[in-house]
Amino acid sequence: MNSNAHYRISQNLLERSIFPKYNPYKLRNQDTPKENPIPLKTEYYHHITEFFLDTFYPKFCPECKIQLTKKITTRDYLIRCEECHYMTSRLSYTPLHHFKLPLWVFGYVLEESYLQSPKVLTATAIQKKTGISYKTALLLKRRIQLFASEQKDNVRDLVYSKLQKENEASSASQNTARTHSEKRVIKNRGPKAKKAALEKNRITLTNADTLVLYSASQRANKGRKRHKHGGSTASIYMSDKLGGKQVGTLVHTIATSNGALILDSVPDQKMNTLGPIIRKNIPEKSPIHTDSGYPWLNSVYRNHKMVNHSAHSKDKRYRWARNRWVTKEGVHIQYAEGNHRVIKQAFSSYGYIRPEYSQLYLNEFCFFRNLKVFGLDAIVQNWRERSSSKQTSELSAKVEESKKQKILVKNGKSNCYRALSVFQSHRSNPVGIVNNK
To answer: What's the predicted TM-score (pTM) here?
Structure first.
């Protein structure tokens, strides 16, 4: 068959396919055809991107002190003031900084990631759906992950403030007694009755646990099962004879009964590693349930209770005890264990993730999960409060620093003050749960 026949067959296949002969995604905005044959709702996703930028990254006029809302039809990435016609880029200093694709592509990825959660949207899926290259799809996904990483502290504040408000409403002793009385009454009831009773009394239980993703247990010891080290940490690091590098990912999970989730990639399960994370996310008076690997939490959290997963049965006919998952007092970590199943199933779509990028993927998973729990309004409101307080604190700090510098310059001590300020900025605040070495 000659080359002309091959050309005619390929042209016929292209005409019958969904996409046209050209790929409009590889063209610029001004080269996009007037009649877009793509089955995606590009205008709808374009509005999603604009709503995202106006909500989380609004632009203000430096002269009129108002938010920029006037659009420019020929250039989507620009926005101007309605009064003084001040014009600036709406993408600068945002997760879309130097974004070269049409704006609707980002809106599509953002919408699909939210709708598919807890499933994940891989770069390969973005490539197949939008027609862009794999590298471009991966960088586009990285922009979503950077935005989710920026919102991580925002979600932490929401979880912490919710738990703290519950502690202020009722004292820790009353919460503990109420929990025990509920467990005695609804001991033989189903999970729906227990959940309804907990919601009625507004008690949010918190679980903490760890899981391993992409375990290297078979490769960590040269494929041998004998002389093998135990524990979760042994399954993520290669043996010393093989280099000792980290292959798997160890994830610390903090899950609440209302569905909130906080994930952190940690190198080990030591007290100095997990202690500051728990102290940062959970108030001291909140009830927290863990397994037997957190005995050091009792010194800080008086409402901390543990369940022994290795409890043996007193009856010789059985090996394991019946209460090794849920104790007689109702202590369990099923909120964390249930999330572990969802996380492992979702992250299996990636195939493998290098440990240095694991926190980005965990932040993305947490953000869309918590977005469904708290809602967009609560996240945006807390985000604006944090940004406004941060700006005011930075402004006041700059004013105080300028005043001190003026005074010290008059006295001839500017160099000493600068050295002292640098030293104070590099000091780390000690964590109360561990002793600094």
So the answer is: 0.73
